[in-house]
Design brief:
The protein is mainly α. It has one domain. It contains 5 helices and no strands. Helix 3 runs antiparallel to helix 5. About 0% of the residues are buried.
Length: about 120
Amino acid sequence: MAGSYVPLLILFTASAVAALGFVAISTILNPRRPTPQKDMPYESGMIPLGDTRARFSVKFYVVAISFIVFDLETVFLIPWAVQVRELGWSAFLAVTLFVMVLAVGLLYEWKKGGLEWD
């Protein structure tokens, strides 16, 4: 039984050695030479104004999480749409329920003002 885990152990060992080797080689071949220009924060080619550690409003994160939730909906809908004819009516009803639950959630969030960031 333990012999069947030997290939897995070899794979994990080879992966760890490769990862550590890549880090060591990159450190050796590219030593760090800090300069004031390199230490500046970089955002889209624009010179940063003010403190780079500014705090964001919580509403920004609420909108971001909402986007992720409703964007992930497509991850579940695309495979269903590809196989819709083979899956039949039971899958259609399940997806309809899924979309209705998401629509109710979106409506609730919209009414509570969760999509506004003012």
